[in-house]
Design brief:
Radius of gyration: 18 Å
Number of helices: 10
Strand content: 5-15%
Distance between the termini: 45 Å
Shape: globular
Length: 276
Amino acid sequence: MNNEWARRAPQEAALPADYFTRPSPARTWNYLQGGKDNYALDRHAAEVMAANYPGMFHMAEQARHFLTRAVRHVATEGGVHQFLDLGCGLPAPPNLSNLHEVAQAVHPDARVVYVDNDKVVLAHARALLTPVTEQGVCAYLDADVRDIEHILTEASDTLDFRHPVSVSMLGVLGAVPFDEALRITASVREAVPSGSYLLFDDGLDAGEARRAGLKQYLGTGIGYYDIRTPEQMARFFAGFEMVEPGLVPVTQWRPAPVGANAARPVEQYGAVARKP
């Protein structure tokens, strides 16, 4: 990781003693998407995964393109002006888009709350994820997705839950056990009004080879992560109505008309769903 990035880490933050000596999911994902805010140990963890799944770099980039298309759809077709991004991670590399940039390009007054439990990630978010319009708002919460009730309460300082909200859970629910993930999505469903949206993507359980690769990846010290079947993922959408084409590989969710190669299937499934 470049020294400037480490230097800018908040000195007052209560970081774990091993924070810069073990791979971080946010920094590893940053490397996979072509970013530079990562350490050698993060790159090693990513390469371990890529050795077992050569399409990993392509998949990571395409997951960010899915975010762009999904947010644009929710803002334009859904008319949503409010966005809650759970587990936002590091800002996107220059060749990719951040959520607020997409939302505020459609609605200059769009309000976005970024949430993460990594204090260094949030330091970067505050510095770099700033509104792109005078009317737009970006706020930041230091919170763990498992404390979803606290997040929803704090987010209400910025977002008006009497009106539709788009809640993003992109690459996040795999980091918590399945039953807890179901509880989180149920809490979100109960908190948001009709016309709100759930944006989701996560890793696919594609069989024994993928599970073996995941085991090696977790052996790098990256932390908990689980891959799931489409049937398991579909349960997160109870009480929501999926937008066409439903739960599919992220490359196949309303792909751009050009770059057909980008639309080849990947082992990352995503969906957009609306609360009726």
